Amino acid sequence: MAFTEKYLTVPEPVEIGGRHIKRYHVTSDPAGIEPEVEKAAYALLPDLLPEPDGTPAAAFAVLHRGSDTGAYLNVYSWAWDNVLHFAGAAAGQSALGCPDADPTHFVPVTGTARDRSWIGCVWELAPLGHERAAWIRHVLAPETPDLPGYLADSLRTGTTATTAADGGQAA
Q1: Angle at Cα 115 formed by Cα 89 and Cα 27, nearest 5°?
Q2: Interval 115-121 mean pLDDT
Q3: What separation in angstroms does the CA of 165 have from each of 127, 130, 133, 162?
Q4: 107-108/83-91 β-pairing
């Protein structure tokens, strides 16, 4: 199996379930993720968020459209001030307990009888280092947390390789 980087696009953050969510989309298709897959994934997203705990209400989500029938939603929510809470869902992937090959039929992957403690594949992990550094820079290091600054500090659109290699800071 030859490894190939994928496209990474960065839609604007959204507010869902009382949390501000930065979004990253990963796909091998330069046209991006199909609107119906995106809509179905974000409809399930509120169910994947932890209860508020006083930490600034922020998260980031990675929506990955596989080259086959699979689609994956990884949600990383900041909790306990400096900890990432993870929850995931998948669609169209029978190996993860999905009931059919429909890439819009998302089901939770974590917290189920078939619990998978996986936090993401190599393409989905590209934003993690950047998000850690941005959280420290804007929320933990300043005397007063700067949530708007954190939300504005995302990787830029490119590939999963270029964003990881050069720090991916927005231009």
Answers
A1: 30
A2: 77
A3: 11, 11, 14, 5
A4: antiparallel
E strands, 14-96, are 14-16, 19-27, 58-65, 71-79, 83-91
- State residue 158's pLDDT score: 92
Burial (CB count within 10 angstroms: exposed 0-12, middle 13-18, buried 19+), residue 33: buried
Cα 46 to Cα 48: distance, rounded to the nearest angstrom: 5
Q: How confident is the model at residue 109 (pLDDT cuts 50, 70, 90)?
A: confident
Residues sharing a CB contact under 8 Å with residue 32, sequence separation 6 or more, in sequence order? 7, 9, 25
Residue carrying structure tokens 């001030």? 81
Helix, strand, coil in percent for the chain, rounding step 5: 25, 25, 45
pTM for the whole structure: 0.91
3-state secondary structure of 73: strand
The pair phi, psi for residue 27, each rounded to 5°, is -160, 155
Cα–Cα dist 116/109, whole Å? 6
Distance CA 126, CA 7 (A): 11
Mean pLDDT, residues 47-51: 94
> Residue 80, SS3?
coil
